[in-house]
From TrEMBL:
Keywords: NAD, Oxidoreductase, Pyruvate. This is Hydroxypyruvate reductase. Belongs to the D-isomer specific 2-hydroxyacid dehydrogenase family. InterPro entries: D-isomer_2-hydroxyacid_DH (IPR050223), D-isomer_2_OHA_DH_cat_dom (IPR006139), D-isomer_DH_NAD-bd (IPR006140), NAD(P)-bd_dom_sf (IPR036291).
Amino acid sequence: MTKQKVLFATIPPRREVPDEVPEFAEFSELFEVVVYPLIDVEQFRKALQTDLSDIAAVYITKAFFKHKFNDFIDYLPPTVKVVALPHVGSDRYDVEKIKSRGIKMCNIGDAPSSDVADVALSLALSTFRFTTFWDHAFRESGGDIIKMKSLMGSTDVDSKTGMPLEAPEDRRFWSKHATLGGKFMDSPKGKVAALVGFGSIGKEIAIRLWAIGMKIVYTKRSELTNAELAQLPFAPVYYPTLDEMLPNTDLLVLAVPHTPQTVNLINERTIQLCKKGIRIVNIGRGTAIDEDVLFKALDDGTVNSVGLDVFQHEPHIDKRYLTRHDVTIAPHVGPFTRDNYHYVAVRTMDNIKNILLNGGDGICPI
């Protein structure tokens, strides 16, 4: 019996095949794995009509980040039944056009949720305790604890470096002046953490924030069902709209995908609704925040501090972030763990097996 073919496009010398996971051996027994170079767009288009004219599935690889997958949709052979994404976001793909050709699409669903939530927790803690600033400054000082303590209670920052200046002696009474460059150092315990987006990632984040003593509220298109609430170790408070939630929020966590509805959720209007000194974490999509509005709010104290793993204009980052002590930044590394990439590969292969072997819609259909 002829095996169905699964395409892995690669950019040499990289070989983007998940053969490091044990489950790939079984996958290779079930299907013919076709590794094909994607160097030139026109050449690859021709290959889809010739050498690759009988493929049954496309396993999305990094090659389709350098060369947009949308540029190849019209050239996919009619034998293609599934396009499998080894990630969550589908905004870079013309999903409707792909589906209009009778091709099913799948992503990895909740596979990276725990790992992304861990990073969100780290960012959240840093917005309260400035842990990443202290790590950087302590190293730069050569390990000078006394110099670090002299920054506690400070109200000003260096106009050139953006880093906190030493506190005057009359502000080194820390029970009264727990500030760093004019921003407050607080405990998250007892504060209100508000989630925008309460899917699998949002729930994992909420569990972690609840575990450190925060009160959890959320907003989403529909309130959690009783069955969903029963799976949580706490009872989160639901707000029908972001506008209603913001005035009661100490920490805002954005865990939303990129859609027309989520672009610039934080804008000139919504920032005015925020409680003074709000903290913001974003691990969803960078487009959820108008960054010019954010910088202004950081400057005037509307926003105390932020933690970001995503940015408005990725892969580029606004250089203003680099000279702020009240911002913790990470280069979009939420899902980057060995464990996650194992889960990702297995979930993607399971999606393909479900469709090609069982005639299903995929484990995680889009």
